[in-house]
Amino acid sequence: MKIIFLGTNGWYDTGTGNTLCAFIETKNEYVILDAGFGIYKINDYIDGSKPAYIFITHMHLDHICGLHILIKLKFKKGLTIFYPEKMKKYMEMFLAHPFTAAPKDLFYKTKLVPLTEGLHKTPFEFESRQLSHIDATYGYRMNLEGKIVAYCADTAICKNDLLLAKKSDLLIHECCFTHKKPSAWGHTSPEEAGELAQKAKTKRLILTHFSGNGFLNMAMRKKAEETAVKIFPNSIAAEDGMEKEI
User: Once rounded to an integer, what is the mean pLDDT over residues 59-65?
Assistant: First the structure.
């Protein structure tokens, strides 16, 4: 089982990458983490032979703008979109005319599932928890083929962040800021992500969601990686197209 990062930017696309999207293929399904513009690349990695599940953290456009192109994606076995229940009216509004094609217009069956916080058993065991961001945002902890994958974007470090990450096999965490600073929006720096990974006793940390206006080039991402590594050695900065075994 491996993860492929299709988009690793926060806020907007730049020469360093598309907005946020990561893809995990298991034996039984396609698991997609957020749907920024990076999602358009997924047709290069799938043949449509498995059901697809998209986990949306929140309704900021850099996490949902790729839903505009669902009509071109190869989800022949159907698609289920999970998202925070508090955002229900906004998701239903966004996935409709005049913004984009509605689920009924797609050539495959599409289901929208608003989530409350807590444990869920289908399509596999996963947990959703509210994170510390300016708008309703969930982080996810998934049990995929016996591996625990935690996904936290966007958020400042918080109690639920730690609970999702605890003793995970892989922690995928946002790294919006180049350095630690106060913000009403709720975001994370490489120092804070490294400290969280260390405290959570995760096995591996992958940084993603690098802000388009903060990380102007890949050298800046490398510096963020080096900062995190000093605190938590098994850290790496994601980039578009990167593939890692889980």
Answer: 98
pTM for the model stands at 0.98
Spatial distance between the Cα atoms of 168 and 151, rounded to a whole number of angstroms: 10
Are 33 and 172 spatial neighbours (Cβ–Cβ below 8 Å)? Answer: yes
Q: Is residue 109 part of a domain?
A: yes
- Cα separation values, 50 from 21, 75, 85, Å: 18, 8, 26
pLDDT per residue as tens digits for the range 104-130: 999 999 999 999 999 999 999 999 999
Q: How many domains are there within the chain?
A: 1
Q: What is the SS3 string spanning 77-130?
A: CCEEEEEEHHHHHHHHHHCCCCCCCCHHHCCCCEEEEEECCEEECCCCCEEEEE
User: Cα–chain-centroid distance for residue 75?
Assistant: 19
Identify the H or E element spanning 52.
strand 52-55
pLDDT at 40: 98
What is the span of the domain harbouring residue 143? 2-239
Instruction: Residue 202: give its domain's CATH number.
Output: 3.60.15.10
